[in-house]
Amino acid sequence: MIEGKRVAVVVPAHDEEELIGRTLASIPAFVDRIYVVDDRSQDATAARAAESGDPRIEVIAHDQNRGVGSAIVTGYKRALDEKVDVTAVMAADGQMDPDDLEEIAVAVARGEVDYAKANRLFTGQAWELMPRHRYLGNAVLSMLTKIASGYWHVADSQSGFTAVSRPMLQQLDLDRIYPRYGFPNDMLVHLNVWNARVRDFPSRPIYNVGERSGIKLWKVIPSIAWLLFKGFFWRLREKYVIRDFHPLVFFYALGIVMSTLGLALGAWVAIERIFLGVDITAGTATLVALLLISGTQFTLFAMWFDMESNKDLR
Prior knowledge:
Elements: E1 7-13, H1 20-26, E2 33-38, H2 45-50, E3 57-61, H3 68-81, E4 86-89, H4 101-109, E5 115-119, H5 125-129, H6 132-149, E6 162-165, H7 166-171, H8 183-193, E7 198-202, H9 217-243, H10 248-276, H11 282-309
Helix pairs in contact: 6-8, 6-9, 8-9, 10-11
């Protein structure tokens, strides 16, 4: 327990027989329950977890591989069934420092935030420890997640080391959240709709402990970018149209429309000039410039309104 609140840790696991035992052994004593969700592993992950002998551990097995997000949701639902007050998530591969768990969980237990997450970028060690391609991929997805979720103060969007309160879990439609690798990004989008208070906490990045990554950035970044694109418009509709109207919707709409028209018209006249030799008139050039400048300004104003609307959610 922490601050008189029961704490659980969800450990999503897939083919982690070599590291699962070490990870479970490292979970601090203040944690009351540990839910190991075996996402249809092809190795002895579930057996290794069960062999640990820790009475806090419950192994839940998926009948098919559903993705890391789905495994986390399974653990969340079990925590709700057992009325756990604070539910954290730690990966099974030993890449999350258990010493950081208390700070993350305490903030939620005290009611300071609804959702706490680790940020490996605060200390500057990440640039030295993380593979460069993963660091840069994280940076791109973090920027896109800021725009899509409205949490402009949050970074390291791919960090799955988190803690959430029971009241917030009860409000979320967990079955709607993306079930695979983009889960933490989509989780932030859904949390923002409910005006959840979210805060980053510094965490030490851990690499080269025997972990294996099957993530292919050239596949992951486009798929999560598309997920965030859809999530962005879903959030605007849910939060700023259906639940409480905000004029930033008009600014975003005008910005997107005018920027798109400006780019399309600019591309069209450029093609005519290059391939057909058609002269670009002063009026056409002025119209293209006006559309692009106005579209950019409307979009930036919309982002600023969004930032102001969410500045207290930390």
